[in-house]
Amino acid sequence: MTFEAVLFDCDGVLVDSEPITNGVLREALNESGWALTQAECMEIFIGKAVRDERARIEAETGQPLTEAWMKAFYDRRNVRLLAELRAVQGAVEAVATIHERVQGRIACASGADRPKVVMQLELVGLLPLFGERVFSGHDLPRSKPAPDVYLAAAAHLGVDPARCLVVEDTATGAQAGLAAGATVWGYCPDGHGRAFAGLPVARVFSHMDELRGAFAAPLAG
User: What pTM, to 2 d.p., does this model score?
Assistant: First the structure.
């Protein structure tokens, strides 16, 4: 298959934000009474919006998840991201190559809030390549693993989802891309595909140079 558009997740695919964001989240939850290790926090929240785990957060902390709590978390998170965020190694070059190859038909489709996604893309120099083609599950009826954000991105580009490649790093995101009818490639920098076990992910790769190389050669799904 020759892909007509490529839809990228953001956190963990384009930017190395997960350890930063989850570190801040763990601190905030610990302060609220839910003692979590970093590994536990990553396992629960990677690939999900914090609000998606509202019931569990409220049960574990014994407190309501208020807008004030969320704002304080976002503010702390953004301070850390502004100071520490870096692009995933090779991601900027891969996106630039793909942008040229598919004539600009790329989009970023994230489960995170849009202001965070835009801020991160700008910090690492990727925003000019994506422009306004940035989509957030927060702005849609359902977030990942529902397909809404990928369907919205494909519709904006005017491309049938079946002709789109989705690049994801989590099972939650992969499920969203597959549910949209797209081909999904899984980015797994640790060199294993356990995150995608049991899912019909077409390809698993461990470095963005592999993704870039696939678009420098004839494309196959």
Answer: 0.88
